[in-house]
Amino acid sequence: MAPYSYRIVDVFTDKPLEGNPLAVVPWAAGIDARTMQRIAREFNLAETVFVLPSERATCAVRFRIFTPTMEMRFAGHPTIGGAFVALRDGLVEHDAKAFAIEELIGDVAVRIEDEGESRSRIWLTTPPIEFGATFERGLCARALGLDASELLDVAPQLVSAGNPTTYIALREPASVDRAWLDLAGLRELRGGAESAVCVFVFSPTQAGAYARMFAPEHGVVEDPATGSATGPLAAYMMRNGLVSTADGTRFVSEQGTKMGRRSLLHVLVHGEAGRDGIEVGGSVVPFAEGTFEAPAGATA
Questions:
Q1: Distance CA 149, CA 80 (A)
Q2: Fewest C-beta atoms under 10 Å: which of 51, 172, 192, 225?
Q3: What is the rounded CA–CA span in Å between residue 221 and residue 271?
Q4: pLDDT tens across 64-74, in order?
Q5: Helices marked H in the chain — which ranges?
Q6: Taking a C-beta distance cutoff of 8 angstroms, is the pair 180, 150 a contact?
Q7: 116, 143: one domain
Q8: Is 99 in contact with 92 (CB distance < 8 Å)?
Q9: Is the pLDDT of residue 246 over 60?
Q10: Does residue 297 fall inside a structural domain?
């Protein structure tokens, strides 16, 4: 059996070794789900995406996305990084400017914006956003190892576009850098969610937000860049009057800096309060590529 190829790309950055690293298996037909999970554990990155032929006429390709411990219904940096590889490897026409990707959550629209000098930014449209339980600020402060005075006077809240995430607004970026979360703290911040929950801490800035995201239940202690959480972040900030840009339609979330993996996630809000959609976009740079042999019994 011929070996499978893989690519490593850095997402939400234009500099190698920054942003969020992603493993992509561009021609993954024949690998079963159990083996996909084992391969993702072997790569041990925040996520690994497997590119398959789409089963829907509306989609160009199909993505299956795995953290080291579980399959995701939707994820942002795999969608953008996987789209980059699909275009580069010819799974999608290389000059395509817009197409849809089949994911477990449904069809996810992406578009390509040329930035000149052979560079581009890839945008995804955030799936529908749902607001859930709110939390007492003191409880959140204790879970993060912070003083309650370091939180803004807005209720932390569970918000989801496929991945339930608790958003906690802090006054200063320095408090974001001091925050930490273990599994005991996470149990306090689940808000009744039945699936795994992420915790997103941020401070509003002039450009948009300075953020960190913890996902120990996903097998990811801290994520350098979380595209699936950034659309809901925009919705949460707008709902609570925390967007500091002049028109509230475009801003940037900086994430991963504390980890040494600075990531810039761009946000476009269409219509009042995102009524016509929220896009999240970023750049992608290739870093490495190689091959692996599928384990015995891996193919369907």
A1: 37
A2: 192
A3: 35
A4: 999 999 999 99
A5: 33-43, 76-88, 137-144, 173-178, 183-187, 227-239
A6: no
A7: no
A8: yes
A9: no
A10: no
**Distance between CA 279 and CA 148 in Å, rounded?**
32
**What angle in degrees, to the nearest 10, is found between the helix axes of 76-88 and 227-239?**
130
Q: Rounded to whole angstroms, how far apart are CA atoms 116 and 261?
A: 25
- In the chain, the number of structural domains is 2
Which residue in this structure is represented by tokens 């995701």?
72
Q: Which domain holds residue 63?
A: 4-125+284-292
Residue 26 has pLDDT above 50, yes or no: yes
Distance in angstroms (rounded) separating the CA atoms of residues 103 and 72: 9
Residue numbers annotated as active site = 47
Question: Is residue 142 classed exposed, middle or buried when 0-12, 13-18 and 19+ CB atoms within 10 A define those classes?
Answer: middle
Fill in the amino acid letter for 220.
V
Output the pLDDT for position 119. 72
Q: Within a domain: residue 300? A: no
CA torsion sign for 181, 184, 188, 191 is positive
Global confidence as pTM: 0.93
